[in-house]
Amino acid sequence: MNTLRKQILVAFAAVGFAGAAFAQTAATAPVQEGRHGHAVTAEQRAAHHAERQAKRAERQAARAAKLRADLKLTAQQEPAFAAFLAAGKPAQRPQGQGAAKAGERGQFAALPAPQRMERMIDRQKQRTARMESRLAALNNFYAVLTPEQKKVFDSQAMRGGFGNHHGHGGPGHHGGRGAALQS
Prior knowledge:
Layout: H1 2-28, E1 31-33, E2 39-41, H2 42-71, H3 78-88, H4 97-110, H5 113-143, H6 147-158
Antiparallel strand pairs: 1-2
Helix pairs in contact: 3-5
């Protein structure tokens, strides 16, 4: 019976060592689990992100071209339109910010609750400042439109076009809003 216990102990130790070796290998591999449970490397994630960004830019350019054509802009109105489009673009993130952002999340979670709330308020103030900048550009552009162009612009805005660059709708909306002028 003593021999059986030793064999079981050796078997458990072997399984433990194998598990530890596997965990060490998994911890050092640069593979993460993707959205649907698939293994994804950092390069694959970056390539997918770049592809999504390119498609988004393509859609935004098409929307801007359609709006330009629908409004029948004059040469004098083009600078205000260009400023309006530029103000609607999301801020560019520095390269490699994804890994830094993950580290920031850990630091953020480690902060005491009042400091986390202060950071959240600071971020909201930054968002508000960007929205105010977009509003100023919108007001400048709107001021150079003719009454007929304003009707066209307003009708497109009512269909869910302007001012919300992330595509999030309000209550009861399921995306698609705000994507018309992000180029």
